[in-house]
Amino acid sequence: MPWSNQSGGGSGGGGGPWGRGGGGNSGGPWGTGNGGGKTPPDLEDLLRRGQDRLRGVMPGGSFGGGRGIIVIGVAAVAIWLFTGFYTVAPNQVGIETVFGRYVGSKGEGLRYNLPYPIGGVVKPNVGQVNSIQIGYRSGVGAQGRARDVAEESLMLTGDENIVDLDFEVQWRVNPLKASDYVFNLQNPEGTIKAISESAMREVIGRRNIQAILTNEQSSIAQEVKEIVQAALDEYGAGVRIEVVQLVSVTPPPEVRPAFIDVNAAQQDAERLQNEAKTYASREVPQARGRAAQVVQAAEAYRTQATADATGQAARFQQVYESYRTAPAVSRERIFLETMEKVFGSVNKVIIDQSSGNAAGGGAAAGVLPVLPLTEMGARGGQPAGGAAR
Q: Is cis: bond before 2, omega within 30 of 0?
């Protein structure tokens, strides 16, 4: 070595580049020259001792020859191979490649693959849920307010209206298809964002704006999720869509007041319809009950009238049979019964014409006094003021 110790005539001192002749000075740049004080370790001595140890280990006692080179090469190869060990976390999948070609996937734990540049390992995170915002950007600016992106949020509906729609897509790497995610997608977020925006515009273009603003938002989100997932599966993206969430669905600011008025009118219409249905549900059963009552009364009257007519016909038939047997008696009986019906409910005056004419006193002399038994019974047995006439 250029700085190895050399013996000098009469010098008696350490050599090396910092060696000084004579005296008891210690070699090295930190020598004090007078032997006093604390001195640092001798670098030359450390290097010399390391060389001696390597000579003792190497076959032949020197670095020269092919054996030393082989040992150094073997040691270098061993160190290189040792660098192939790697660890896969619980939320990761190890994608192994050899010369850039996919050879397999490994789960969590300590794994091994040929080191770089022959082999390689990519460890995508399959447990993390990623989010893509379309139509807006949250937390933008000093105050952290959301910023609207009009070129993404304004969409044309099926009835040729414009709706301002902001939504969010949450996705994660499919653990069963992590290799597809690594090798088939160059820009995962950009691809998913483009497909999601295209699917949303397709779904919105098939619906009217009133349905979009009111009662079909959940079905829209589900349909967009299915379309995006089908497209990504067709591309072999290795991505699983977790949820599509509509953040804001409103008309454009220029026509928002008019839409608010329309919504208020629709709510009033629905309220009136509900009130009409309530009134109908209360009145219709009552009307049906009254109708049933009238029908039952009519049926009862019909039954009664039919029974009366049948009885009268039977009675007439019996009278006719009696008349055929004894016509004179039957006529007399019919006459008497008829007179009873006619005079039974009226006041009667009986005049005996024969007696009146015989007395020569005129018609008044033939009037017979009649005791009003009917009126006396109606008045509780009290006699009338005079005889009825």
A: no
Helix (H, G, I), strand (E, B) or coil at 7: coil
pTM: 0.52
Give, for 9, the enclosing helix (H) or strand (E).
none
Q: Which two tokens stand for residue 361?
A: 């006193």
End-to-end CA distance of the chain: 178
Lowest mean per-residue pLDDT among 15-29, 196-210, 275-289: 15-29
- Phi, psi at residue 85, to the nearest 5°? -75, 140
**Which tens digit of pLDDT belongs to each residue from 360-372?**
455 455 666 666 6
Tokens of 280: 């109908």
> What is the rounded average pLDDT of the residues 157-172?
92
Task: Dump pLDDT digits (tens) for 179-208.
Answer: 899 988 889 999 999 999 999 999 999 999
Whether residue 113 contacts residue 84, with contact meaning beta carbons closer than 8 Å, is answered with: yes
Q: Determine the Cα–Cα distance for residues 14 and 21; give it in Å rounded to an integer.
A: 7
Cα–Cα distance for residue pair 305/195, rounded to 1 Å: 82
The Cα–Cα gap between 131 and 243 comes to 10
Distance CA 121, CA 112 (A): 9
